[in-house]
Specification:
With 356 residues, this protein is mainly alpha-helical. It is built from 17 helices and no strands. Helix content is 65%, strand content 0%.
């Protein structure tokens, strides 16, 4: 295997420093993890980037401002979500690429709200907040007590839903809605673990992390990004579901690995490295190696459902264009994962510079 390497990031890409000792601990942790992980990373650190990235950056920054999200989280600009989207959707149109950037920023905004405050530590509070954001019941017309800032988050969420559904067919909308529901449900389940003080087992953690990413609703944009329409019957096929799950697992675990410095320094236990270290009684470098092994195995496990899906689409009598659409979608799933270079040089993730 070729050793994973990447150029030094532009210093201007760094966001604000983490406070005091947390920054020091995070940097040391990130350096320890990177030294183990980067030489044996099982896929490209970086893939192609959408050439419209800088144009979408301006559109995305305008959306952040007009949505009101910057008022409660100025760090969203430092996040540079347009860069993540440019890696994830290299062939997307302006509109779909901006959807990817806007959803990425909103999800991380919600993630920080749950991870860095009291919301994610109490199951009832987490349930109240998710119900308010989703607007499912009448009593959620007002934000939970003391959380007026959630109004802007809910309006941003509703606006993105409306924009996204305009691009989707009814079967796609149904899948997207299901993945959003799983995301919010998983946030509540994660809060239950925090409230109990119990660290989930590796199996429990990976099951929850598949949805808290939240990679699955972002993966739903892949089909739009390559301008294809999958056959409607595909969305309930076990091979399709396994490919979605595997892609979500790989990307979520990669995020854990490269954000370990920030999270472990702040005492966040919902990270695959901490879970492995705790339950398997191993050191941080050993946990990092185990996590990379999980990522590698999950990548290899995608081959079987991909082949089975290709056989099914052929046997179903689909047109040549339908078979080509499935092939393009599977290729795009793999390419969607190639964005780990993004984490380097971003002080949000307390990352380190890796040079030639």
């Amino acid at each position: 295997m070729t050793e994973a390497r990447m150029p030094s990031p532009d210093a201007s890409s760094s966001g604000p420093e983490l406070p005091g000792y947390i920054s020091d601990v995070a940097a040391r942790t990130a350096a320890t993890v990177a030294a183990v992980v980067v030489p044996c990373w099982p896929m490209p650190m970086a893939g192609r980037r959408n050439p419209a990235m800088n144009t979408v950056r301006r559109l995305h920054e305008r959306w952040l401002e007009t949505s009101g999200l910057l008022a409660s989280s100025s760090a969203l600009l430092d996040l540079q979500a347009w860069e993540i989207a440019a890696y994830a959707y290299p062939d997307a149109s302006f509109d779909v690429l901006q959807l990817g950037a806007d959803w990425t920023a909103l999800y991380i905004h919600i993630d920080d709200y749950f991870d860095q405050g009291s919301v994610g530590n109490r199951i009832q509070t987490a349930r109240d907040v998710t119900e308010f954001l989703r607007g499912h019941v009448d009593h959620c017309s007002h934000p939970p007590s003391g959380k007026a800032e959630l109004r802007e988050t809910r309006e941003a969420y509703r606006g993105l839903l409306a924009r996204t559904r305009q691009w989707m067919t009814p079967p796609q909308v149904e899948v997207f809605n299901s993945h959003l529901a799983s995301y919010f449900d998983a946030l509540v389940e994660e809060a239950a673990y925090r409230e109990s003080g119990r660290i989930p087992s590796p199996e429990e953690y990976c099951r929850i992390r598949r949805f808290t990413g939240p990679m699955q609703p972002l993966i739903d944009l892949v089909e739009l990004s390559v301008s294809i329409r999958l056959p409607p019957g595909i969305y309930t096929r076990p091979e399709y579901l396994e490919l979605i799950d595997a892609t979500s697992d790989i990307t979520s675990w990669a995020n854990d690995i490269f954000s370990a410095g920030k999270e472990l320094a702040r005492g966040e236990v919902h990270n695959i490295l901490h879970v492995l270290r705790h339950h398997m009684d191993v050191t941080l470098p050993e946990a990092a190696r185990l996590a990379v092994g999980h990522v590698r195995a999950r990548i290899e496990q995608m081959d079987q459902p991909a082949a089975a899906l290709a056989r099914w689409i052929k046997e179903s009598g689909a047109s040549p264009s339908g078979r080509q659409a499935v092939q393009a979608w599977v290729r795009a799933l793999h390419e969607w994962q190639h964005h780990c270079a993004y984490y380097f040089g971003k002080t949000r993730y307390a990352s380190v510079t890796v040079t030639e």
